[in-house]
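User: Hi! I'm a student and our assignment asks us to look at how structure tokens line up with a sequence. Could you show me two examples?

Assistant: Happy to help. In each example below, the sequence comes first and the structure tokens follow. Example one:
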Amino acid sequence: MTIFDKVIEIYRDTYICSHCLGRMFSLLGTDTTNHDRGNSLLLAITMDKHRAYLSQQDNRDNASQILKLLAENAKFTPAQSVLKKEGIEYIEPDSAEKCYLCYDIFNNINVYAKRAEKYLENLEFTNFLIGTALDAHIINNEDNFKATHNLLEAESFKNHFNREVGKDLSLILGKPAEFGMPDITIIYSIKFGSFDISLLLRSLFVYGRYNKFVRGIPQTHWNCRLCRGRGCESCKFTGKQYPTSVEELISPKFVNEAKADGSKFHGAGREDIDVRMLGNGRPFILELNNPKIRTLDLIKIQNKVNKSNKRKIKVSDLKYSSKERVKNLKFSAENTKKVYKAIVISKEKISKDNFDVLLKKLKSVYEQQKLQQRTPIRVSHRRADKIREKKIFRVEGKFIKPNLSEFIVEAQGGTYIKELISGDNGRTTPSFSDVYGFSLECKKLDVLKIY
């Protein structure tokens, strides 16, 4: 069966528009549109049958019948003109009849593009992508149609719709479509006779570093342990375990400036609630969800955050980032070097000379072997119970008084410093307490530097 025979068979069955006819043979031929392909097929058949009608008396009836089929069932104007020219009567097609496959959606693509333009008002973006969610009835209709006529070279409804709306909208907006990482994805939910539009705005990522100058503030928001965020007497109906967090002190200014729906805080590791983050600060990435504004004055936001949180936290080194950088941030946290300052009290009093001897012993131990750390008891309820091997790169110490010392520790990321000192009932070895031979406890801890 030739393509012409297939087309004639289709129109004996039902009416479809030129767009849908062309896309049923979309894989055949290049450098044309589905609409032009469909029209070309109908025109070629019209010309062929007109010639047959004029030159072959025996086939006149067949030729005129096919011309009438195209004029009536395909609503093809050139076929109607041929019939009028040759004085052949035909029935005027029903102008209200809609395409069986697209319900005349493809003849009204500009309506869909114009509606999207209104949805995009007051949004900042440089490119976009069209997406489609089709009603099951449309999909089943098309699948059955293709199976009935054994159509194997067709393009899907979605591909045709996305491309044609994308072309129209690009002309309207003066902005290109983007298939990799679009700023906005415009999703059409289509039924025959109606459609809705929803927008998916690509998250905006901002990298920076934060310092935390006070103890008692966690890195991220914690729900109340009792009510799990619902609000109760214990949390004074705030739903929070702690009054605020580094995340809550930083993110509102960004959310407000970007007109975002919310945010997610990604840190390169985290310090305990009672630990200060000093020095060059801890790297973080703030993910802004559904931002209406994508070009931010990062210096202005930085100044606002720092001014409103003096003596609590500070942000610096702000720059745009990406989702891929978030993965790298999480992955690399374990492979960084971090420098800590620990104020340590000892169960037994020691002299200055004895302190120097023990410090030398500490340095020797960690030069020769790695630390074996089983998940600390204090975090075992939320961390996998396993043994982690860590490297202690440097230990420096300062004698303050017989039961009080200061240590500078340079360690691999992910090392639990408090347990490095105490031993955590034997779960961390060799610990400072192991080397000293009696109990040590970290009373204050600061992060001085993250490489």
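Example two works the same way, sequence first and then tokens:
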Amino acid sequence: MPKLKQLKEKRASVYSQIDELRKAADGREMTSEEQARWDTLLAEYTKADKAVEAEERFVEIHRRQAETVAEQRAEGTDAEEEYRSAFRDYLLHGAQGISAEQRAAFESRDTLQGLSAGVLIPATLASSIEKALKSYGGMFEAGSIITTSNGGDLIMPTINDTSAKATIVTEYAQSSKRTPSFGSVTLKAFTYRTPIIPVSQELLQDSAFNLDSLLSDLLVESFGRGINEHLTTGSGSGQPKGIVTAASASAATAAATAISLDNILDLIKGVDSAYAKNGKFMFNRNTLFALAKIKDNDGRYIWQDGTRTGAPSTLFGKNYVINDDMADIGAGNASVLFGDLSKYKIRMVKNFRVIRLNELLAEYLSVGLFGFARVDGTLLDAGTHPVQKLVHAKS
């Protein structure tokens, strides 16, 4: 029941008692007990009436605030649509073909004086690109994305206190002291550019063509190939440190050309329970088909098809991520990862940008478009090895 209704009912109840007492006296002088009750009820009514007034005032304030928020959201939606329209005109006509209002919209979004630094992709398009990247490359699906407002070094602290345990201490005895192991990793901002994409003026001017879909498909394909590869196997020198590079090797070594059930069990066993609880596998599609053939000691396949139950497919009861930048099963390769993949941090600076080149392809009646983003990535490992890799023997 709404609070205002409760307060009004309480006030009405006090009024009923006052009215009953008044009728009982029926014009005669009240007794001392009746007078005391009369004074008490009047005081209660005054208090209840003030509570109703206060709640009515709050309800009115809440209504006005809700209207204000709705108006702000509508204005924000309108502003985003205006920016989206300006972005389309920029792609169609270039920096010289947009209005002063549209230019101001770009500059207010990110102080892009003269548009020399390109323009930010509208939020709706940027969101679709990020979603597509998650399905295109396994790292954007598995890792944790951190967005920063500038490209300065981002220092991520680490701490290892896994060996600390509570102990029994007798009364008045001094507690033991232990200093956790602190560390840090630094995320930089490497600039990734897509190849220049030629787009015909006819295509840009075709109002029936979905320009957002075109850009999303083209940019995701280019970004996905370059960024996902480095986030997977990058060396960490002049490029992100890929998850395979950063992961610790499992104590067990797989055969040069095959994976056994024991290899998978040893890989899971080697990851601390704190990480294995939410652990996932990562491997490429070829490795998935090889793993799907493995059976346990009871003759059951360790790969379970999720379509039977409506749940995701699993490997040994654990979810997995397909990443085709992982190496195939082969001598010396690391073909399978297991652990808490969210401990891999992907740092992105602001958002994607798009540059329009007017003259480069003018003779083909086309414009050149390319995008760029600043990205880095690394695995947060304080010595606890949240992700381990299965490495094959070299021969």
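Here is something you could point out in your write-up. The first strand starts at residue 119 and ends at 120.
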